[in-house]
Amino acid sequence: MTENDKLLQSLHTGKKFATKYAAYRPSYPQEVYDHIMSYHLERHDSLPCDQQLAVDVCCGSGQSTLPLTKYFGKVVGSDVSVDLISKVPAAQNLTTAVAAAEDLRFLESGTVDLVTIATSLQWVNLDKFFSEVRRVLKPDGTFAAYSYWFDQLDNVEADTYLKHMRNKVFGKYLTSRMDIMKNKYTTIKLPFRQIQRLASILGGGASVGSGDIQLSTKWNVFMVLGRNG
Questions:
Q1: How many CA atoms lie within 13 A of 221 on its CB side?
Q2: What is the arrangement of strands in the sheet containing 94-98, beginning at the earlier edge strand?
């Protein structure tokens, strides 16, 4: 196990943490999956498109995993945290695996139609991870990485206070890896032949562009505290 794996496990350990994570981790808008599937299907206009196996890496408690089950015959959610994996919702065609993103040995080479990673690309060893992604994907397979930035509240006073807490109090605990998210993954060199970039970020100091998807939801004050507390 690498030092990065140990760090991630230390940050995502314990049943209490997993319960809180599962309760307050935002889900993703349907538009994200519409874009992923549109891209996957359009690349196969003249050929049959396989939708047999999708793998969601760093799946956490399954917010980004479960939506894939309606598109693929089999879906696997993998994460380095046993506690988070235990919170993944049950589905007939969904299984899980405890594994680091850089070690997908539970998958055979050239067998996966889609590999996704949501709001976690900044935490992995990119060279090792991409090597594994390229190994497990079919020759015509698809890789999709997406993320969101920090919360932005509609209430101006509450949003100002939240930004203050994030920048002045929590900011010192954030690593430079978070810049990868803030830059919408544009600083990452993707080792694939065909690339389409579409950022999925809302607020928090990062601008929302014309091609961005807004992730919005209604939360009461207890949900906001739970998410950021």
A1: 4
A2: 94-98, 74-79, 53-57, 112-118, 137-146
Residue pair 113/54 in contact by the 8 Å Cβ criterion: yes
Query: Which tokens in the block code for residue 142?
Result: 């698809």
CA-wise closest residue to 95 among 118, 116, 74, 64? 74
This prediction has a pTM of: 0.78
CB atoms within 10 A of CB 19: 14
The C-alpha atoms of residue 78 and residue 89 are separated, in whole angstroms, by 13
Nearest to 124 by CA among 145, 151, 149: 145
pLDDT per residue as tens digits for the range 50-82: 789 999 999 999 999 999 999 999 999 999 999
Cα dist. 9→51, 83, 131, 152, 166 in Å? 31, 10, 22, 28, 23
Q: Which two tokens stand for residue 111?
A: 């067998």
